[in-house]
């Protein structure tokens, strides 16, 4: 059993945890549930030796423990899959998995071949068939997440903390992960599971603990509580979302993509995207659904000018064909992309929240020789902090001090502030709690009502069904369906998303 007793934690005056107590049971999946900024990751970082300064006590198998490092926690049998992926980009998959615990022979030489073999074995459990010598930087976020999971599994820990392990992977990979979790459960391990996806929580969790504003609100068996009750405990209120009923087809065409094709960068005969064409109308929200590897992110990247060499096809705004060879061309044409990998493309984590929100507007203004006054910059960031209810004491704080979900909101705010004609959103609500999601959907609908065209890539069917007017479905680089919302159901979308072979 892993027990937290009266744990409190402050960050330079901000109270992240206020006297939290909980019990985490062996042979069970213990779900920790709460809104963005509730304190989930902070508590997990205390359990796993990342944060070493805190008040209160932790008991592990009846012994008081106080870890001075992650190494100490790992040696004691506690491993964590971090919410923000922690892999070293220029090292290979195998090197990352064995980082700090390399397999060596009696002379101290690294056994690279054995490590590669073991890595292949681990990856195949997760159905990831990639060469273990591949560098992390070459992987998509979802694949990186699977590597992070494999890494935690390798340690053979007694406690495995999963902080939003499925935020970047799709249903098929989730099924693989759940099979592994069930195996770990039967071995009597303590699984701690954090997710904002209720479907997953009800599918895999045995017990739940609800946190709100750094305090424990409730805990119990998951089969004794409903989703609405849980949401109410998390947020203190009820939330409802409605499907759109739209008539955007009557609107003029705002944007069109014709024969978008992307050749594989190594195997020229292989097509990552094959002849994709579609239209987006004024005020339309177009959902793009597909399983991992379907090519959704690559499609957004092509539109945004990120594949000038290997990509081809035609992009038009209205009736005018655009020459898009780089992101600056795309932005000049009125297209903005909120990327899926926020750490890499979205956020400057060592800068203030205010700077991050205003940076893209600043760049636009500076091009015209204008400067944004400090006052305007302030009101811009305050406006978005309110609109998206970003949880922070001040917009002066560095972006890295925000919880994962609140960081994602900053990335969104930054691009919304540029008011593009066409907004591409790649998994915009990953890691965002149910309440903030509803606010983001409302914001998207308001922007669409003002005439903006929005394309949203999402792995969450309920999300697509809530916001989209039309749904594109992709499989292995092909467009397999274009379904109006009136005809869309989860079953129909999935049917078109399943691999052909
Ligand atoms: N390194 C830090 N410095 C300052 N404040 C921090 C730091 N880490 C977390 N916080 C603050 O502590 C609070 C709890 O954050 P935490 O990351 O634990 O939330 P969370 O429940 O994991 O949220 P999410 O669902 O968004 O991941 C937030 O107000 C956050 O801004
Ligand atoms: Mg978190």
Condensed summary:
With 501 residues, the protein is α/β, with parallel strands linked by helices. The chain folds into 2 domains: 2-235, P-loop containing nucleotide triphosphate hydrolases (Rossmann fold, 3-Layer(aba) Sandwich); 241-334 and 451-501, P-loop containing nucleotide triphosphate hydrolases (Rossmann fold).
Output the strand order for the largest sheet. 6-7-8-3-9-10
Query: Structurally, how many domains make up the residues?
Result: 2
Sheet with the most strands, sense and barrel status: 6 strands, mixed
Number of strands: 20
- Identify the CATH class of the largest domain: Alpha Beta
**Ligand kinds:** adenosine-5'-triphosphate, magnesium ion
Tell me the β content: 25-35%
Percent of residues in helices comes to 25-40%
**Which of globular, elongated, flat, extended, rod-shaped describes the shape?**
globular
Distance between the termini: 45 Å
Mean pLDDT: 88
CATH architecture of the largest domain: 3-Layer(aba) Sandwich
The assigned structural class equals alpha/beta
CATH topology of the largest domain: Rossmann fold
State the fourth-level CATH superfamily of the largest domain: P-loop containing nucleotide triphosphate hydrolases
Tally of DSSP helical segments: 17
**Uncertain parts:** none
Overview of the molecule:
This protein has 501 residues and is α/β, with parallel strands linked by helices. It has two domains: 2-235, Rossmann fold, CATH 3.40.50; 241-334 and 451-501, P-loop containing nucleotide triphosphate hydrolases (Rossmann fold), CATH 3.40.50. The protein is 34% helix and 26% strand. The strands form four sheets. A six-stranded mixed beta sheet has the order 6-7-8-3-9-10, with helices on both faces. Strand 14 (311-317) and strand 15 (320-322) form a beta hairpin. The longest helix has 16 residues, at 171-186. The chain starts with a strand and ends with a helix. The structure holds adenosine-5'-triphosphate and magnesium ion.
